[in-house]
Design a protein that fits this description.
Blueprint: H1 2-26, H2 31-37, H3 43-50, H4 52-88
Length: 105
């Protein structure tokens, strides 16, 4: 059961990263972002949030989330490949069997 829970948690985390990454990449450049500015209480904050550098920083944070999700999917695939290879009796990447070194006396 813990393996199923771990896989479910990983799937949920990857899903979160994809959704959050998409939102953070797209939201600063949509018309709704400009409408959001009218609801901010201080003019200085409105100027800061409207600045292209702030929009770019939010987009970069979204890209980080997307890359993180890809990393987790890749890691999950590698772990499954390793587990399948161990069940079959071989380890991926070890085409040549490792030779034991003689013991030093």
């Amino acid at each position: 059961m813990p393996a199923v829970r771990f896989a479910t948690n990983r799937l949920l985390f990857v899903g979160y990263c994809v959704v959050a990454g998409d939102f953070l990449c797209l939201a600063p450049w949509l018309p709704g972002w400009a409408r959001l500015l009218t609801h901010l209480p201080w003019p200085e904050l409105q100027t800061l949030v409207a600045h292209p550098l702030t929009r770019s920083a939010v987009t970069a944070f979204g890209v980080i989330h997307l890359v993180w999700s890809l990393h987790d999917v890749d890691q999950w695939a590698r772990e499954r490949e390793q587990a399948a290879a161990q069940e079959a009796g071989s380890v991926p990447g070890s085409e040549h069997p490792r030779q034991e070194e003689p013991a030093i006396r």
